[in-house]
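1st attempt posting a full record on here, be nice pls
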Amino acid sequence: MLGQERTVLPLLADQVFHLNAYTAGMTYILAFGVAKAATNYLAGTWSDRYGRKPVLVAGWLVALPVPLLLIWAPSWWWVIVANVLLGVSQGLTWSTTVIMKIDLVGPERRGFAMGLNEAAGYGAVAATALATGYLAAEHGLRPEPFYLGIAFAALGLGLSTIFVHETRGHADAEARAHKAKDDGSDAHLHAELSQREVFAQTSLREPALSAACQAGMVNNLNDGLAWGLFPLLFASAGLSVGRIGVLAAIYPAVWGLGQLGTGALSDRIGRKSLIVGGMLTQAGALGIVAASDSFGPWAMGAVLLGAGTAMVYPTLLAVIGDVAHPAWRARSVGIYRLWRDGGFAVGAVLSGVVADLWGVRASVWTVAALTAVSGALVFARMYETHRRPGPVSPAPR
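the predicted structure (as tokens):
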């Protein structure tokens, strides 16, 4: 559902709706990011209250109108409404799949499970970005590329309704079996917390959780930049829609496939080094994209950007699973994803404004610098969370 937009929507904004300002063209990413971030927050709470499966199915119901709105849109506002619905759908469905996989696996396999989840998602993003680029080159920007979305929504709803089983009982069992440390040093992570307390621990107070939140936000900030501005940068160099589709697919393809290895690797070597290295790799990749003007270097930048993101994406989720107590872990995942996907909205505004003032390349350089700073903050603030089974206590302050 997300991949159908990666190649086509930036070109629709430019060629069909004639949005000359970059900031105006990025409004659909802003709408998507705000809607998804807010829904992520609610999805964790609702998953604890009503169960995982009802939230998952509800997310797919919300997705059904999205491709139809994109096909029929007579104005840009229809595209914005479609992306609000897509953001709500993604917040409900993807948050729930993350929570369910954390429910189903123990701490020793948590990184691997997150890698499988994210690889499935972003592998599909890449394949669909490539397919829609081909369809757009052969048949035009609308409606053929969005026919895929109709099939995806129907499949997602059908599979979720028929085959997916409720997993909340696994988390309840883990919570009953979970023991705090004898010295009580991690009692604040094991007590039953209110929603406000969970928000404070995840966002600010707990070093590993809060470091993960800011890194996740910056990661999706640069993904929002890649989604909204990379196709326009590539088009400005005279690349065809088909070649733009290839470049739009390389980044999520490497990201998706790479997570099959990086999630499991974080279970072996720990989380922190992969996150720091991944953020710095992303920063370097963005620098290559900003400094280049042809297909080959851009493809190399896309490969490195995907590799860096693969190092970070499942590992950050594994950090949340390591530290948060099972009793409030679903809520913590939702709050982390609130901050992470808020990066789409921040990226849309920041990169659009900078691009309007100083050009697309200046926007890419700006986000590259922010990504490097984020990696440095993780290095300074996050402790290693994967040292033994179960949540770990914070490092001495």
